[in-house]
Amino acid sequence: MSAALDSTHDPKLRSWVESANPPGGDFPIQNLPLAVFRRLRTGENFRCGVAIGDSVLDLGALDMLSPFEGLGAEALAACAEPSLNRLMALGREASVALRRGLSECLRAGAPRAAELAPALIPQAEAEFTLPARVGNYTDFYASIHHATAVGRLFRPDQPLLANYKWVPIAYHGRASSLGVSGQQVRRPRGQVMPRGAERPQVAASARLDFELEVGLFIGAGNGLGQAIPIGQAEEHVFGLCLLNDWSARDLQAWEYQPLGPFLAKSFATTISPWVVTLEALAPYRLPWSRPAEDPQPLPYLDCGQLRASGALDLHLDVALETAAMRAAGTAPQSLARTNFRHSYWSIAQMVAHHTVNGCNLEPGDLLGSGTQSGPAPQEAGSLLELTEGGKRALQLESGETRTFIEDGDRIVLRGWCERPGCARIGFGEASGTVLAAS
Description:
Structural class: alpha+beta
Number of helices: 11
Helix content: 10-25%
Radius of gyration: 22 Å
CATH architecture of the largest domain: Alpha-Beta Complex
């Protein structure tokens, strides 16, 4: 949970890639997020790349120039593969060394800029795939505001269960249905129990929803039976992405007791292609705290480092583009905006709790934060909350209304960190379009 800054965070840094320098962009030289890509419509092999301005730097091509030495060279060599798993497995020191080397290569005045320029590919001419081979996917429930609001809809007599303030609740998700931004999501079918009916029926979900989440990619793993201490937890986190855990609320309401989500969640999860490293986010660390009137975390979930800098000032936004808006050329409409700093459970606590029983995490494993909602109604991270369970339709600027997602709708998640005196760090977007049920 170190918030240490170095020369790579200097807000005065400029790149010889001019598109990285204007203020307000997602990918300045202080960011350098990683992804897996290839040239659009070429059938080339996928390989690792780093975002700089409106381009992606081909790290496989960069490796052929042998620009680094030592650990940085080892980290760069690990990027000459169709996933980030090998780099993730090398651990935090390797990703730090790679970041420093890339920063030096991409700074204005770098001596080898002319050699690197041919390795730049416009992002508009690239296609992306999942940044890692995800062996396991776990989705947490880390926002108390979301948990309370949803609990109030499903369990009016007991909105927040007694264990919530003690245990970072999670369920094991489905890694096989993960997709990258641009994913087309087929409306799921499953069992639903119509209001007033005596028996369930199989039908296409009529209450399809998004969930505005943050994804955590695991770097170096831990051995089976070896818990990760809270103070070391972030050493095992490679970076963050945006995550939309699509949810069929009518399937969920019928199936979730007694064992929790199943088919309501397993049909699709969309993530952003870019993984923003924890190093890039160092200027945006915040103290983590728990309200004094709430139970304080058990010792394995608490430490001085967590209290000093365990939270993150990460802005999150979710927008909707209907088919009619798309036909008219209208930009997606923002539905809600919140901040990851409101999360009741932190990054480190999720990792520490996941392993306290000896569970082994592996490089490329993905953890979802659960829907991130803030304390205000306009900070809700799902339509379930924004429409009060479908009781209050949202009025869109296009004249349309929505209670839940309709066929043809595109959901766009965005995230960024910014404040005066620091470079803006963007996450790009995670978008997905809903198709009619088959």
